[in-house]
Write a structure and sequence with these properties.
Beta-galactosidase, Chain A, domain 5, 11% helix, mainly beta, eight-stranded antiparallel beta sheet, single chain
Length: 314
């Protein structure tokens, strides 16, 4: 009996609240014993992405299409996969609309491939994964190396929080074109769209797409009613991110994206190229975001306080 109790006690203390498990095509993330998301790294995926994202109650906030077919879901924009990071114009290659059934714009489609899972950690309060991925153009040339660390947290209060630290390093000289088609993005379920119950609000108090899209802001919160419950998700842009505060490519139909490269479209200035950026070989560009899936709307959650806490991180 005593041995049994000791083994049970040891198992209790060794149990991780954030557990990450690697499989050939994905990294599974469990928080407090519940499946939260998978980081899809399959060889045939056009880019790595997180799918699905869930609340603490297990409600899915990201659209299922094109990974799964769910009745009543819109089936537009097949490149909107869960949560992802890419861009629509790097040296003329499209890493955004890059599904195999899409031609892409400019020279055609590029691909983002995970080449190494460097580090995988589970823990009682947080877990993390660090990966390397290559941005490869349509001719097979490696343009960029992306180093990414994602950290997932177990915390009280009903929130699901994850941090993203992304550094792009140029292998070839890489020009990021001035286009709205990018960059750090997710596609929300239909119930959370502004066309349904959702509302966007930014740090300046701008509400809905007409006052958020194309504007600069350190954060935007997108909340609505899902299965009778008020829920929301906020994206926070860290002060050390490239071109902070970011611009927002966020739409009433559920696209929720931060994009510092789209000034041409956001300002509706046909002659502007201010959104473009060039990395010469060896040069880097860093992005840091925090995503919080929370109960309640933006008034109940307080995105400003969440951003202040995130911004204080070195």
């Amino acid at each position: 009996m005593k041995l049994h109790c000791l083994l049970l006690l040891a198992a209790t203390f060794s149990w991780s609240q954030v557990k990450l498990t690697q499989a050939p095509d994905r990294i599974r993330v469990e928080i407090d014993g519940k499946h939260f998301t998978d980081y899809i790294i399959a060889a045939d995926a056009p880019k790595p992405y997180l799918h699905p994202l869930r609340t603490t109650a297990g409600k899915q906030i990201t659209r299922s299409f094109p990974m799964d077919l769910v009745e009543g879901e819109k089936r537009d924009h097949p490149h909107h996969r869960g949560l992802w990071f890419s861009h629509g114009d790097v040296n003329g290659w499209d890493f955004w609309a890059n599904e195999k059934n899409q031609k892409g714009v400019g020279k055609g489609r590029g691909e983002i491939k995970v080449v190494k899972v460097k580090d995988l950690k589970s823990g009682k309060k947080s877990g993390s994964v660090s990966t390397l991925q290559d941005w490869i153009d349509g001719s097979g040339k490696r343009l960029l190396s992306e180093a990414r660390t994602m950290t997932f947290y177990s915390e009280p209060g009903g929130n699901r929080t994850m941090d993203f630290d992304i550094t792009l390093t140029a292998i070839e000289e890489s020009v990021f074109g001035d286009t709205k088609e990018g960059a750090f993005a997710m596609r929300l379920v239909r119930a959370l769209e502004e066309e349904s119950t959702g509302t966007m609000i930014n740090s300046e108090g701008g509400e809905k797409e007409k006052n958020v899209w194309g504007k600069r802001s350190p954060w935007v919160d997108y909340s609505g009613t899902l299965d009778g419950e008020k829920v929301g998700v906020v994206i926070l842009d860290h002060p050390t991110s490239f071109r902070h505060p970011t611009y927002w490519h966020s739409r009433a139909y559920g696209l929720f994206a931060s994009n510092v490269f789209g000034i041409h479209d956001f300002t509706r200035d046909k002659n502007s190229t201010l959104g473009a950026a060039t990395l010469k070989p060896g040069e880097t560009m860093r992005f840091r975001f925090r995503v919080v899936i929370h109960p309640g709307d933006s008034k109940a959650f307080d995105p400003a306080a969440a951003w202040k806490k995130f911004a204080a991180l070195k």
